[in-house]
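Please produce the structure of this protein holding zinc ion.
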Amino acid sequence: MTITFIGTGAADWDWGAMPPGTRGSTATLVGGSCLIDAGPTVMRGLAEAGVDSGAIADIVVTHSHQDHFRPETIAALSDARGGNLRVWAAPEAIQALGGIQCDKRPLCAGARFECGDLRYTALPSNHATGNIREQTFHFLIEDGQTTILYALDGAWILAKAQDILGRTLAGRKLDAVIWDATCGPSPAGWRYAAHNDLAMIDAMKADMDDASVTAAGTVHILDHIARTLWPTDAEERRAIASRHGCILAEDGMSVNIPMEA
Ligand SMILES: [Zn+2]
Ligand SMILES: [Zn+2]
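Below is the modeled complex.
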């Protein structure tokens, strides 16, 4: 399964001026045609990654925070396909699309759906948008050979998500986890946070290994990086990720899962 990181930044980067080294709004292309999230820098990120915006057939929305969900971006992607675009999102996000021409598919926790060759399962996440009714999502993504967990935004893994994950995996192990690593080495507040820090990710990795949901070969990727909570030096950021047994996502980076040893 090919994963291309179109944007890897949390909401504290300057997307007006886009100074060099700026991470774009977090969005991830899975395979060639399914885009997770469509925030403010996505059209630019797709162009820089050499992805034709007309190739995007499905948009899967984690939640409606402005760094992940911008109706104008979805309208532009719909235009690029003559309206032949599917959008999978919580009903509250679907409603915000108004009259934008696309095939609107409301999601609930536990929903299973297909985007081309990919099978998605929507998992509830521990995050909040300000609209108390909106369920925010993580996703389990499978293509018949490879299984990945897309776990952003949100802190920890909810018990309901653990339950759905366990039943869907039925003993199989995850090939990769893409983590909300917003806070990096800065403590997030374990009992009162909407995002993960690296100590939280270490704890979850150990517990998921113990539960046989992940294994030594599982690839862990850190994403949704906050400008203000990680060191400014790019090398230092990569070294920190590596010390935690993880790969740091970068804008435009593409990985094939499972990775070659
Ligand atoms: Zn975010
Ligand atoms: Zn968010």
